[in-house]
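Final report, results section. Input specification for complex C-07:
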Amino acid sequence: KAGVTQTPRYLIKTRGQQVTLSCSPISGHRSVSWYQQTPGQGLQFLFEYFSETQRNKGNFPGRFSGRQFSNSRSEMNVSTLELGDSALYLCASSLGSYTNTEAFFGQGTRLTVV
Amino acid sequence: AQSVTQLGSHVSVSEGALVLLRCNYSSSVPPYLFWYVQYPNQGLQLLLKYTTGATLVKGINGFEAEFKKSETSFHLTKPSAHMSDAAEYFCAVSSDTGRRALTFGSGTRLQVQP
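Structure output:
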């Protein structure tokens, strides 16, 4: 079956702009989580959605937001981009909302803010 | 709160040698523990996980890890390294609440010398 699909793979934006990233989970998976990966901070949890509801949120400013649609596809939005938002954004999907079930990661979206 | 410490940001081994990547965790509740591998420009792939039960966990590609509660460790091993094992490895622990929020270590880059 198809894996987790993230689009676009690469993105270049200018400071102050906003950006929307998309994640299509594995068919049947209802949980989608987002992570930011940077060389300095490593992998950090952004938020998790399950059945269109945000279940958990990491320690990021309000400029970072997300949503999940009825088909489980998820989007995350970053407004008023800063240079420090340059990162690899990873999406993970899983069947359930609990961490004893496997999370499958997409290949990520590489965001560069200039 | 929970945390993960990976000892050694870079590990270099010869092909055929033992691979040992160290991970220590801190968690206020019984943890779920994971090892992920990341190849360049790729997402994360689950190698193995510990939830409950047997403390020696076998994963893909010949990797295994042992959960040692008394040492709060979950070290990853492979008896014989292969060139294709060169990648970055991340240890992760689940959230205190049990919801999907992985806390990752800073990663260990494994280099395999011919």
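Chain B has a mean pLDDT of 91. Chain B touches chain A at residues 32, 36, 41-46, 49, 51-52, 90, 92, 94-95, 97-107 (CB under 8 Å). This concludes the modelling results for the funded period.
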